[in-house]
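Suppose you are handed a protein chain with no further information: no name, no annotation, nothing but its sequence. What can you learn? This example shows the usual starting point.
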Amino acid sequence: MKHLIEPATILQKVKVGQLSKNEAIKILESILGESESEIKRQEAIQSIGALSLNTNYVYKLLEKSMISDESPLVRVESAKNLLNSFSDRDLSPILWAIENENSILFYKHLLDFIEQNLQGHLTPVKNQVINKLTKTYDLAYNDMKFIVDLDYLDAIKFLNQYQDFIDKFDVDPEYQRDLLQQNTALNNKGLSRIDKKIDGHIIHLTLHDLNLIPISINLLLKLEKLIIDHCNFKGVKLDNIKLDNLKQLVFTNNQIDDLPDWVFIVANKRRNVKKFIERGVNASQAGTLALMEILIGQSLRVINKFEQPNLRSACYYTLDEMGRVLGIFIANLPSKMGIFPDQICNLKSLEELHLVGQEFIEIPDCLIKLKNLKILNLSNNQITSIPENIELMQNLEYMDLHVDVNDIQSFYVPDSIKKLSKLKILDLRGKNSQNIPESIKSLDFMKLN
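A reasonable first move is to predict its three-dimensional structure. Written in structure tokens, the prediction is:
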């Protein structure tokens, strides 16, 4: 195949007078007919729009691409240009394309475009899109928009992995097309995440295996229960979510850098803290316990402060006479917290903290606020260091960071550990102690392999 000029180069040549607009259209048309690159053809359509040449020839070219190009992104780019530049023309071809389209990529981009361009001539197209999507998903408009966004995210995730997949498994070309169509189709996975709906509104929803939560979740005004599980939100901020009517939240087994404030806001709702207050928990600390339940997906049970919990599987807390939390015992549960919530650091009376096997990667610096803490058990987590300010926890007697399976990552212990005068045991079994200085390894309280 001959080398095709870049669409951006064509536009530049028009700008400096080296090509006329009609000549540029002809070259862009050749790209649409000859290029195997979806991106290149999409750029060609965008360049045609940028030329603002509203002739019948251009109309027919865009119409042909909208109807016959194999790429939904090229098709939707053509539809957008037709709506932008030929609003006075017959809308029948666009309406036909919408009725016969099945790609979430096409609908997502067209719906966003229509919502950003609310001119009256787009009303029939908008109505056609809304009717098609609400019928497909059997949902009210706002709820449908959220599920469309979910299906779109799934399609993009698939496309990002698609080339590696077909290269690895040498997928037959015909099956490749089927695979693409199936995984970028309307209603690919989105509806499977709805646990309950009433009159077209989502009431209960489960989100698994996502890297982002669409902001359109805020449109789910009747959402009451939300489960977010096994998602990877590393490098992603979730602070723009606001779910005023949410009654129940489960946020387990997720990878995340910082716990968003709205999770703690849900935890502090009256219905979530009420049961703890009724059990005698100080009102200022009830929200933290409610947050713990959200992060483990299970109910915490209060036990007598003198009772010895079974750490093989624990989900307990203890109180003092004033209703302040003395101990938290969470160990070896099927679900994992995934992040150490800073709110625990506000439990100033805490003496015993067990968060075993919760997939933590670090100990937060705020832990030094727990001046009364005597026992800290963070065993079987992926922690690689002890904070420098550990010396401020002067009542600490027992610190367990051991792992059952040997950790290959080097572990860091600061010199300040020597200043913990009451420390009796620092358990680092299974940790890679290669880079721990001998002067620290030889301390009486050290417990190594």
